Structures are given as C-alpha cells and as structure tokens.
Amino acid sequence: MRASFEKLLNPSQQQKQLPLIFPLMIALISGAIFSFALAPFHWWWLAILSPALLYASLHERSAKQAFGIGWAYGFGLWFVGAFWLYTSIHEFGNTHAALSVLMIAIMALVMGLFTAVQTWLYRRFFPETPLTFAPIWIVFEWAKTWVFTGFPWLFAGYAFTERYLDHYAPVFGVFAVSFVVILLASALVEILRRKWLWIIPSAFFLVLAWAFSFIQFVEPKNEKPLSVSLIQGNIPQDLKWLTEYQGKTLEIYAQLSQSEWGRDLIVWPESSIPLFQTDIPDFLQLMNQQAKNTDTAWVTGIPYWDLKESKQNGAPMYYNAMIAYGSDASGLYKKQRLVPFGEYIPLSGLLSWVLPALQNDPSMSGFSRGSSTQKPFNIKGHHLAAAICYEVAYPNLTRRNAQDSDFLVTVSNDAWFKGTAGPQQHLQMVQMRAIENGRWFIRATNTGVTAFINPEGHIVKQAPSDKRAVLRGDLPAMQGQTLYSRLGDWPILIFSILLLILGWIYRPRQVDISFKSRR
C-alpha cells in the first residue's frame, strides 16, 4: 500500500526551471481569468484551466517562491473577480475613482493571502500531487467562510452550477464540487506530463458524479402548491434612503402589489420598506389588514428596531430584518451575517474620510447581528427558511436555517452593484444552495435578479432586471432531506484532512531536503 501511494505522491525529477517572473505572471493571469468561469459568462472550462495553470506554476518551486506565486494568483482572482465592489465604493460611496481602485487592490492583496498561505503550505509540507493540491484548496475555501467573519466568494464549485458535477452538491455540498474540479484540473496537468495513472482517479470521480445523479433525496408533498408573488420595485440606490423619496418607495411597492392580494404569499425584497417599523405603524397596520382581508401572507424586508434590546452602552439594537404579516403568517428574521463595505463600515470612525457618503446611510451603519437560533417563518402551514442578501453565500448558515423547512426564501438589494457581475454571481450561489438543500428557493430583489429556483438549481422563472416587475409562481412544498442538509461540510472536510495527513506521512524525503536547501 505504501509503495503504491508513494507512486502517486513522488514528484518528477528535478528539471531546469524558468525564471520566477514567468510563473508569477502565469499565476496572476490565471487568477484573473477564473471569474469568467462563473456567472454571467459561464465559461466553465476556465475553472479547470485556471487552477491547472497554478498547479503547473508551482512545480518544484520552493515554499518561499510558492508563497509569491500563490499571492499573485490570489490578487488576480480577487481584483478581477470582485471588481463589482467598485460600483458601490465609487458611485454610491462618492469615493474618487483612483482611490476606489486602490481600495479594491488592497482588498485583493489581503484576500490573496489565502492563496499565498495555501500554496506555501502545499510546497512546504506536502508532495506535488493532486491528492494534496485539491484537499488543501478545499480547506482554504472553507476558511473563507469564517476567517474575519468570512468572504465566501469565487469558489471553484460554482462554475458547475447546473452542470454535470453539481450532482455532488446535495450529497456533500459545494466544497465537494470544488474538490473534484481542482482534482481534475491538477490531474490534467499530470496526464499532460504523461503520468497516465491519473486517468483512473479522474474517471472515478466523473463516474461517481453520474452515479449521484440517480439519487433522489427529496420529493414534492402531495398537497396544493403555494402561490407566490414577488414584487420588484426597482428603486434606484441613490434615491432609496432619501427622506423625500421614502413615501414614493412605499407607494410603488403598494401599487405593484394591488393585483396580487388573494395569492398565498407576497414577498417584498430587502429593505423595500426604507424606514423602521416604529416610524410607520399606520402603513404596516394598513398592509396587514389588507393581507388578512384577502387571505394572503405578506413578507417584507425592513430595518427593524428591537425596542426590547439595547447594547451594553445603552445604544439601540437595529437589525436588517424580514417580517411576516397577514393571514396565517408569523415570523421575524434578523440577519446574522452583515456585509463589510456593502452593508456596514468596519472601523467606521477611522474610515469616515474614505466613504463619506455612506456614513449617514441607515443601511450601512449600526446594524447588529441576529441570533443563530432563529426559527423559520410559518406561512400557510409551511415553514419558510430565510436568508437576507449576502447570507446565501454561506453554505452552512443556509443549511442550518433550512432545517425543518418546506421552502427557502431570500430577499436582496443588489442595486449597489448594478451593471456588474456581482448580482449574477450572487444568484448562482442561491442556485447552489437550492441544490444542496433540496428546496425551492424564492428570491425577491429590488432591481434583480428576482427568480424562482427549483431544487435542482434551475431558474424556472425570473423577472427582467432593472425594471419594475411582478413575478408569479406556484411552488410545491418539498419533503425529505439531502445528505448535505444532514451532515453539512464535515464529510468533505474530514476526507480532505485525511488526504493531507496521508500526504504528509508518505511525503518523499526530498520535500524536506528541498525546503532546507532553498530556505
């Protein structure tokens, strides 16, 4: 067993290397092209090519060199892949264009450290093999969901949403999809080096995806579908929080909803009501009565002032929330994960000079985090698990909220990033969460993309972006649980860590010798 495992792990013989500038440039470019594998471009093959080029660039490099190569890759990945932040920082933050680009570059440098540390560890402690490259990639993708509250974006697995490898998602989650993508990418490099043995594990994981496609974890309940209407008000972000436009916003959403009363559920998007519930009790009472009179449940996004709670310094507790009103409806959900620089300003006192226009925006300051033990909404005898905006980027958070639910519902306001790839990348994550949990996902947004997504992750209906619209659907409640909803990320994480342990134990002696000689 040891001999066969070492055969997979042993690096090739030492070869003359190109100057370091070449792998650095290749890594930078390969990181920069990765995001084109995701929505809205969907060039999925780049999710194979990009990490394959990184893997090849690390060949027989020292750990110190690998750190630089990984940092170059990570910088390219985040600078291009998250450049949609420019719109919110420059256009809505009134920050100079050059300073906005500089801030994104700093963010890319910081986030690029994930890949830098990943590649340093890979070359310092492990042999060159897909069996160590893929699992360490997954460990670091997972780390992005919690280190410094997390920025879980640009995962390799998302490129295969609605594609062959997404059959891994309901079994082991998006990290399992990423694992197979990275394994195939690095195995391809080995095959091109005429190491034909790597065809076997590559074929195995492709066949396993085919086998998983026959497993049906969930099925529709034998009952009447839930009739749902989603209201997309298309309120411009630069007007949304203006005092003089708040009444107009409420009027727009109320008018769009007039024809929808009588359906089971009407959903308004995140902060569609741009006032605290304490500011508009008469409006809420009017809408609540309208919903009850027409036997309709109404769920809306709203900033919520919890009058029963206060911070240690006596300051009020404000939440980005969803609340249910109307007939046979109850529930209040307070957002658990807040968006840095998109929803609140970290160290706002120190950074007030950077984003001056956002300091007085209620959507950007003072929000508190909701509890992790909140219950789903009760709507017409169904349980609706909630997520607000950015929260759907967190696989385990969505999975935890989805326990004992019949539907998933998310509200968002992506007007911050209008005209960029950000909203489409965001939608792609919602699709993956639907697959992982085997539930219909109801998604209501202010400007798009408002959509109904089925348990296979397919967009069944969507409203046109950047227009006022009403989207109607009749959705069956689902029963049963996916394996991922039961076990979460633990199976793929444990599998990855075991591979790394085996790789470290059976690493060829020259890995340590090489490190000492090049230190």
What distinguishing features does this structure have?
519 residues; alpha/beta; Nitrilase/N-carbamoyl-D-aminoacid amidohydrolase; 2 domains; seven-stranded mixed sheet; six-stranded mixed sheet; 19 helices; disordered N terminus; C-N_Hydrolase; LNT_N; transmembrane helix; cell membrane; EC 2.3.1.269
Report on this model:
The chain is of the alpha/beta class. It has 2 domains: 17-216 and 486-510, no CATH class; 221-481, Nitrilase/N-carbamoyl-D-aminoacid amidohydrolase. Helices cover 44% and strands 15% of the residues. It is built from 19 helices and 15 strands. The protein has helices at 2-9, 21-34, 46-57, 63-81, 85-91, 97-125, 130-143, 169-172, 174-192, 199-212, 237-240, 243-257, 281-293, 348-351, 395-401, 422-437, 483-487, 490-505, 509-518; strands at 219-220, 226-232, 265-267, 297-310, 316-326, 329-330, 332-334, 377-379, 382-388, 407-412, 441-445, 451-453, 459-462, 469-475, 478-479. Strands 6-8-9-10-11-12-13 form a 7-stranded mixed sheet, covered by helices on one side. A hairpin with a 5-residue loop joins strand 4 and strand 5 (316-326). The chain is globular, with a radius of gyration of 24 Å.
